[in-house]
Amino acid sequence: MAACKAKALKLLLGMISLAFLAALAGQPSVQVSVNIIGKDGNLINGALNFSSLGLCHGDWANLLQHSPGGCQTWEWLRKNMWLGRCISSDMAQASLDDIFFFLGWLMAHSGAKAKLGQKLAVDIAQQALPLLLLSAGQWMDQLGYMKSAEHLQALPVLRTKAGKLRKMMDPVNRMLLLWKLRKEKVQRRKAAVTHDDLVASETSWARKEALVDCVLHQNALLSFMKGHPKQVALSWDPSNYGGKEILVVMGYSKHLQSGFYALNQWLARMKLSDLDDSLIKTAREKKLERLEGYNEIRGLGKALESIDMHWNDFRVPAGLVLRPLMAHEYRVLRPETGRVWIYNEQTQAAVPEVPLDYYLGDIPALISISDQGPINWAALNYLMWSKQGHMLLCIRDPFHRAWNDCKNSAKKTTCKLWRTILELCLLFNLSYGPFGTSQFHYAERALLENFLSTETFAGRAWGKYQSLICMERKIAEPMRAEESMAMFGQLSALENFVNKGPLIKLMKWFSVFEGCCSWDGDFFATKLILESKMQDVGAEGDAVEVVPLEQEANQRHPKEDDRAQLNALKKRKGTWALAPGLVTEALIAKKDVLMSVGRAMWKMHADRARRLKTPGDVSQHYIKAAGEKQWAAELVEMVANSLWRDETLQHLLPRWCLHPEVLGWHVEFFTHLLEGRAMSLTAFYCLPPFKYAHLLSEVYGTAKTAHQLARADFAALLKAE
C-alpha cells in the first residue's frame, strides 16, 4: 500500500512540475492565492509568488506564521521521511513541490493536532490545497494546449518485466500508425507490422481493426436491408488479392434505389469437413467435380447472409408451378379471369399456375451478374435449371463477353493474331520491367539520349529504318536532307520513351488497344533505339542472318501454345533482348488489322464504361437497345470500319501495305469477329428478359409495343406446348 502511495505522490509532483513550466510561458513568476485558518480561528488570505525556479520567497513563511502548529510540522518534516521523501527547502524559500508534499501529508494524517488544539488538516490543508489544485489544473490545461501544437513522436514499445513486448499498444503510437497507414487498403496489416518502432511485430492490432471494420459494415448492411423484400441484384467476381482468392460482391436494390457492398468472402480451399456426409466417400476417391464452382457459389451464399438473405429464400415458392408440364397436363386459360390453370387428365383436377392469393410483387428474385467463365456458369446453370432450381436469373457481363469474342476470334485466325496480341503486351509492358520496378524505362531513356548524341540522320542505322518508320506512320518518305533531319529530331519526343504508357493487362478495359494508340507510329523507331545497343551488324557491315522468333519458338517448343512459347523465349533471351526482335513488318500489319476490325467493339464498350454511371443510365441503355435495336450499332460500325471507311483501311492500300498477306488476314479476322459478336449480342439482347426491356420505357407507345411483343411470344410458346 505504501509503495502505491509513493508512486502516486511521485506522479503528482512530476505532473505539477511540468505544468508549472507551461504556466510560466516566459513570465518571471506565477502567483497563486491561498487561504488558511489562523490560531485565533480567522480566515487568512495570502498570495504566493513562485519564481521561475519554483521557489516562494517569504510569502509561504509569512502565511504559515499564523499557524504555529503548521510551522512546527514543516520543520518536523524536514527531519523525518514520509513515503521516501522529506521537505528539502527552508520555509522562507519554500519550493512548490515541498508545499504540495506538506499539504499531502496533512491530508493523509487528518488526526494530527497542534499543541493549541488546532486541527492542521482542516485549518491548513483543506483550505489551501483545493486552491492550489485548481491552479495546477489550469497549468495542466495550458500544458495540454502547448503539447497539442507539437508533432507526435513515437514512444518506446511497451515491454514486460521480462523484456517481452506487450500486446497492448501505446495510444500515441497507435495514432501515429493510423496516420502512416491512412492510404493503405489491401496490404494494411502487412504494412503495419513493418513499423516495429511503433508496434510489436506479433501484435494483433491490425487484424482486430479489420474485424472491427467488418462488424461495423455488417451492422450497417443489416440496418440498411432491414425489412427488405427478397429481391436483389448482385454483381460479383472472385480475384486474387494479396495472394488470397477473394470474392468481391456489389449489390443493387430496386426497392431502395441504392447500391451497396456486401462483405467480401475469402474463398479458402475446400476441406472434407465442408462437404455433406454423402459426398465424403466420393471426395476421397477424387471423383468430385465442379468443386471450384461450388466454392464460389458457397462464397456468394455467405455474401447473401451479410444482407440477411439465404439461398433458401430464393427457392421456388410453394404452389407456384415453375416446371415443364408432364404429358398428361395442359395449360387452360380462363377468359373471365385471365388466369392460367394447370389441368391434370389423370386426376381431373385443376390448380392455378400462380396461387390465387399470391402477389407477384413479393416473389423472391435474385439476379446474378458475373463474367462468363467455365467455373461459375456451370454452377449457376445448375441453380437455374436443375430440379432444385432457384428463382435466379444469370446475366453475363457484356465487357468480359466482348473481350472473349475478340480473343476467340484472334485464336481462330491462321495468322496467329492472338500471338500478336501477346507480343504487343510484352512490348507495352517493357517500361514497367523487370518485376514492376520500372528500371527498364530509365534504361530506355538513357539509351535514347546516348543514341541521339552518337548518331545522325545520315548514319547507317537511321537509313535502315527511315522508310519503315514512314510506312508505319503512313507518311511520304523525306526527299531532302532537311526533312530527314527534322524527322530524326522527332525521336527525342517518342511517347513510349518520355512516358511509361498504360500498364497492359489483357482483361483491363481492352488495354491492349490503349497501348496500340500510345505507341502509334513508334514501333520501328523503338526498335531502332533498342537495337542500337545490340551487335546486329557484321564486320563487313552486312546484317547478320537470324532465325525469326516465331520459327525458333515452333522449332524448340512445337507442342506448346503461343503463350508458353513466348514465355520460353522470354526466359531464354530475356525481355530486354527479345523486345526489338518482336517488331517486324508482319507484327505492324497484324496490329493494324486488330485496330481496324476491333475499333467499333473497343470504342463502344469504352464509351459505355464512361457514359453509364448510374442505375438509371443502365436502365435507359437497355430500353433503347431493345426498343430501337441500338445493340446492332456495334455490328454496323464494325462493317463500316472493316469494309469501306477510308481512315481505317489505310493499311490495305498498296502504298502502305507492310505484308503481302495483310488483306487475307483482315478479311479472316473480320469474318470471325463479326460472327462472334453477332452471336453474343443477339443472345444477350434478343432473348428474354432484355428482349422486353422497353416495357420499362416512359414512352407509352414504346412500352405498349414491348407488351404486345411479349404477349405474342408467350402465345406462340403456349401454342407450341
From TrEMBL:
Domain of life from the UniProt record: Eukaryota
Signal peptide: 1-25
Keywords from the UniProt entry: Signal
Protein name, entry field: Uncharacterized protein
